[in-house]
Amino acid sequence: MIEAIRNAFKVPDLRRRILFTFGILAIYRFGAHVPVPGVDVSVIRELFKQGGILGFMDLFAGGALSEFAVFALGIMPYITAAIIMELLTVVIPKVEEWAKEGEIGRRKITQWTRYLTLFLCLVQSIGLTFFFQGQLKIVFPLLTKFLIVITLTTGAIIIMWLGELITQKGIGNGMSLLIFVSIISRFPQASIETFQIVNPLLIILLVFIILAMIAAIIFTESGQRRIPVQYAKRIVGRRIYGGQSTYIPLKINSAGVIPIIFAASVLLFPATLARFFPGKFFKVLAETLNPTSPFYLSLFALFIIFFTYFYTAIIFNPIDISDNIKKYGGFIPGVRPGKPTASYLDRILSRITFPGSLFLALIAVLPTIFMAQLNIPFFKEFGGISILIIVGVALETVRQVETHLIMRHYEGFLK
């Protein structure tokens, strides 16, 4: 491991990417501690000690929401906008056409995602301003309201830009790394609270539970079904092409942590609106969608299973894979080329995605149940969602670093 880290910093391009990523993440954490103008942060902190929806939102914002900082909205508006655009790809033919146009189409979708992010940021910043004004029983002057809305919206757009910079010029997926840093920043506080309250036996149990969860996540993330593909020999002039055997790796969890982020975003949106608006209906809705309620946990698990299949279907198209195999003279042994191959791949993918989606649902829900039964503060900050995102993003980033090392004939991290 130490040798691999040393090798990573020996490669100029990789070293520059890693240092650039650390620099962007440092800017992101700095913005999470700069409060917006005209607000008493100490009063807002007391409000967030109640937990619930606000505490869950604050987790993805890396504590910036409880500080009412410049980056209080976090990366969630962009994630929500990306979800909406993914759904529109299936619903609106024009957006579906863009998705099939390659790089030009992806640029159009990205541009509209940014516009939608800006709109969501404005809505959420206005909602947060009036929500805190109502909860704190104070009236902000009109100029202060305007400054708060502009500051929060600008901060969220800067976060989106920082994430794209990491993806383009850094290492790893920028949006995933921003969420990773937001969650991991709560680790010291959660650990201190746990050691102060929980007895040593429960701490030992907690360590075993976390290690078991990490091992299960790594095992599931690494699990795959390899579909063998045989390519026929082709003679072009005096050269012989093809004839080799390869395989298509179908992962048990092809979607990674995206379904959990999608499900959390979808459920947080109506719950957030319910907290912003007064009235009996919205009050009941906020209580129903409390992250610790049985209804919320059941709905959360079902949404995770749905989004696992949904996102897997988006990133893996059996028809396109089948056409590419047939185009280059390949075939799956025992399966006819063309439509039968696509049906075979779709059937296999559906079967292996089911246990993967169940695992994601269980790993997201069970720690919340443990928290309710054992009253361990650590699970309040680091539930299954947090641990899954941390391990998943870490594995993805390590694989990218390893790819750079292997390309330059260095030994990677994973052996």
Descriptive overview:
It contains 18 helices and five strands. It has helices at residues 2-10, 12-31, 41-48, 52-60, 76-91, 93-99, 103-135, 142-169, 174-184, 187-197, 200-222, 258-276, 280-288, 294-315, 318-327, 339-374, 377-381, 384-407; strands at residues 224-231, 233-236, 239-242, 245-251, 330-331. The strands form two sheets. A three-stranded antiparallel sheet has the order 4-1-5. The relative contact order is 0.12. The mean pLDDT is 78.
What labels describe this entry?
415 residues, mainly alpha, Preprotein translocase SecY subunit, 2 domains, three-stranded antiparallel beta sheet, two-stranded antiparallel sheet, 5 strands
Describe the structure concisely for a colleague.
The protein has helices spanning 2-10, 12-31, 41-48, 52-60, 76-91, 93-99, 103-135, 142-169, 174-184, 187-197, 200-222, 258-276, 280-288, 294-315, 318-327, 339-374, 377-381, 384-407, and strands at residues 224-231, 233-236, 239-242, 245-251, 330-331.
Q: Count the domains.
A: 2
The main sheet orders its strands as 4-1-5
User: What's the total helix number?
Assistant: 18
CATH topology of the largest domain: Preprotein translocase SecY subunit
CATH class of the largest domain: Mainly Alpha
Secondary-structure blueprint:
Elements (H helix, E strand, L loop, with lengths): L1 H9 L1 H20 L9 H8 L3 H9 L15 H16 L1 H7 L3 H33 L6 H28 L4 H11 L2 H11 L2 H23 L1 E8 L1 E4 L2 E4 L2 E7 L6 H19 L3 H9 L5 H22 L2 H10 L2 E2 L7 H36 L2 H5 L2 H24 L8
Antiparallel strand pairs: 1-4, 1-5, 2-3
Helix pairs in contact: 2-8, 2-9, 5-6, 5-7, 5-12, 6-7, 7-8, 8-9, 9-18, 11-16, 11-18, 12-13, 12-14, 14-16, 15-16, 16-18
